[in-house]
Design brief:
Elements lengths: L1 H9 L1 E2 L2 H7 L3 H4 L14 E2 L2 H19 L2 H9 L6 H5 L9 E5 L2 E5 L6 H13 L10 H14 L2 H4 L6 H4 L2 H9 L18 E7 L5 E7 L9 E2 L4 E2 L30 E4 L5 E6 L6 H14 L4 H6 L3 E5 L15 E6 L4 H9 L4 E4 L10 E6 L2 E6 L12
Parallel strand pairs: 12-13
Antiparallel strand pairs: 1-2, 3-4, 4-9, 5-6, 7-8, 9-10, 10-14, 11-12, 14-15
């Protein structure tokens, strides 16, 4: 942790994205030294209070953080919500990932309450719905979009920390949805099948052990709250809960919210590594990842080609947060990057999709990264949409 402590104590340059995010937000600047006013790219910023918290973690581990200054600050911030016992017990756990065979390989993603099951489900549906072999085929985006809609339209009703991941990706559940992917139009999903601020890092070592890691404050600086005296920003992941009493995802003690974080690892039939990938982007994470998987495994594209290609994302009809795409029963807008093939827009519009064109290489379409293993060669590629991403080997 020494490098992180050094940057927090002695300063780090603001990237263009960070500078733009901070500028004009006085509540943010109050807790970042050097950011009291407009921030320019390259300007040195400091997190000296936070450096102290990092030192505590380096010296005392988990308990030094949760049972130390941070835990005490949280109890002061929300005395009616938190007790000392809440911070003494660890809620971290090892779980077997959710896996599925798609495009001839095995794809692995976190269990619920992650949205990773949507990536697996959409890929499985798309494969069986006849996804074309080439992204230049006008039907390519339509099949993927409809597969994602079929997979995800009921996410608000079924995803919670109590959800059974295997049941969510079972063939019995998904088979009927394959038939719902129409080549000649957009499916009406109303009532169908109903029974009643992020960072991604991928690392692969010489032994081909891969880590596909994602963390998120949710919406840039999270809740905009800071634990007093610590410099620690509090995340906004509570946005994943709802307040509907009796719903499996209702806010309650000792619960984890449904969330968007959905990194992926791909292996072959012998469980040897094929690729590690993931992205930031709220509800669009499974959408971006399934497009990358289709390009890598179905179309045979290289990581660089797959990452630089134009993308689509889906947005709810009244959603401007990127965290409520599926709150309208699958009624979504199709947003295309300007660098997608021209045929995509006309073909999708002709099938009944509501199509909107957005600038190419926009942050809204994710910051995805891929490491692909091919024999003795590792190929790592960072998304050109990110101004601060990097690919490195040693």
């Amino acid at each position: 942790m020494r490098p992180a402590i050094d940057y927090a104590q002695n300063g780090f340059p603001a990237t263009p994205f960070v500078a733009n995010t901070i500028s004009g937000r006085s509540a943010v600047g109050e807790f970042i030294e050097g950011a009291g006013g407009p921030v320019a790219a390259g300007q040195t910023l400091y997190r000296r209070q936070f450096a102290g918290i990092l030192r505590d973690i380096a010296e005392g581990g988990r308990d030094a953080f949760y049972c130390g200054a941070f835990g005490a600050a949280m109890r002061r911030l929300g005395p009616e919500l938190f007790a000392a016992e809440d911070f003494r017990k660890s809620q971290a756990s090892w779980t077997r990932p959710l896996g599925m065979e798609v495009f001839g390989q095995r794809i692995w993603t976190p269990q619920p309450p992650s949205s990773g099951y949507l990536t697996l489900s959409a890929a499985w549906i798309a494969e069986r719905a006849g996804l074309p072999a080439s992204p230049t085929d006008p039907a390519w985006p339509h099949v993927l979009i409809e597969a994602m809609r079929q997979a995800a339209f009921d996410r608000p009703e079924v995803l919670s920390d109590a959800a059974d991941g295997q049941a969510l990706i079972s063939r019995d559940r998904l088979s009927d949805r394959v038939g719902g992917v129409r080549r000649d139009g957009v499916a009406n999903l109303t009532g169908s099948y109903r029974p009643g601020g992020t960072t991604y890092v991928s690392v692969v070592d010489a032994e081909r052990t891969a880590v596909s890691l994602i963390q998120s404050n949710c919406m840039s600086f999270g809740s905009r709250l800071v634990a007093p005296g610590t410099g620690v920003w509090l995340h906004n992941r509570g946005i994943g809960f709802n307040l509907r009493q009796g719903h499996p995802n209702c806010l309650a003690p000792n619960r984890r919210p449904a969330h968007t974080l959905a990194p992926v690892i791909v292996t072959d039939q012998n469980d040897d590594l094929i690729a590690s990938l993931g992205t930031r982007g709220g509800d669009s994470q499974p959408q971006v990842v399934v497009q990358l998987l289709a390009r890598l495994l179905r179309a045979g594209e290289s990581p660089a080609t797959a990452l630089s290609a134009g993308r689509w994302i889906l947005r709810g009809k009244e959603d401007d947060t990127s965290f409520n795409t599926w709150g309208f029963g699958g009624d979504v807008r199709v947003c295309l990057e300007a660098n997608t093939p021209g045929e995509w827009s006309s073909h999708l519009g002709g099938l009944g999709h509501r199509v909107e064109i957005e600038p190419a290489f926009s942050h809204a379409f994710g910051h995805a990264h891929i490491i692909e293993a091919n024999g003795n060669v590792l190929q790592a590629c960072a998304d050109p949409r990110s101004g601060s991403a990097a690919a490195a080997g040693y």
